[in-house]
Amino acid sequence: MATFKAIRIDKAEKGTTATLTRFDEAELMDGDVTVRVEWSTLNYKDGLAVTGKAPVVRRFPMIAGIDFAGTVEQSSHPQWKAGDQVICNGWGMGETHLGSYAEKARVKGDWLVRLPEGMSARDAMAIGTAGYTAMLAVLALEHHGLTPAHGPVVVTGAAGGVGSVATAVLSKLGYHVVASTGRLSEADYLRDIGAAEVIDRSELTGPAKPLAKERWVGGVDSVGSTTLANLLSMTKYRGAIAACGLAGGMDLPTSVAPFILRGVCLLGIDSVMCPIELRKTAWSRLASDLDPGKLTEITHEIDLDGVIEAGAKILAGQVRGRIVVKIV
Fold it and tell me: What ranges in 173-306 are assigned the alpha helix state H?
């Protein structure tokens, strides 16, 4: 049986180890579609997995990587045939199911989304789970009823993967985007991709008041903790914040005041087990609502052998925008 390159994570005496090695195709898990993986990407969760900084991986050995774009090689699923170009995000890949930092993946056909027309596999992974999650957040804000006419929106962690795509998409849709970042050196970059204002994250890191001055009608938050508490306290009447990350922590030191005195809504965004029809909508909207030029500005490329080093950098807040990983 053939072997292929993969980033393998194993249990160690203390924590885990991540190694670029050869993986035996016979060890691939059950699935009705086998894909030649061409591109992947680096997300915050991938950084946690390859560095072992958090218990992301639930079985061993594991192939890291939570998303891929590639071409179907074999399929017994009625929807897919050899040669189809597909995207896969989440579903436990890189956690409980062998993931995408490998030249091959075997998954369930029900997990796959067809690559949108006019979008390359590389572009899909330039977007990746981070960008797809950002689009889910935008869809949630729209479902809540928000429009650009209602007022400004805020994006936290704006120079990161989720934040960069959220900023670019919301700007293209006509929103006045307030970008919050801990790296004010990236202010020009953020304005280039669509931010109307750039604020220092220190404005959102102090203890949150139950209610503060109303500043925005909605937002996309990838930070959590005190930052999210401050966002909620500053959200306008009947506004909403879509929360999709926890880089700042899992706690939420807030009160019920924003919810019961201003009617603010906290919209939880899960990308891992998101229903397939909503996934299709998100990818379709990304194909139309994300400026390809902006995508180019926020993306740079590495090979599979650069993933482990880059994983440490993304956790240290040293990565701007999106990283695509060339697999083959």
Answer: 187-192, 225-233, 257-261, 276-289, 292-297
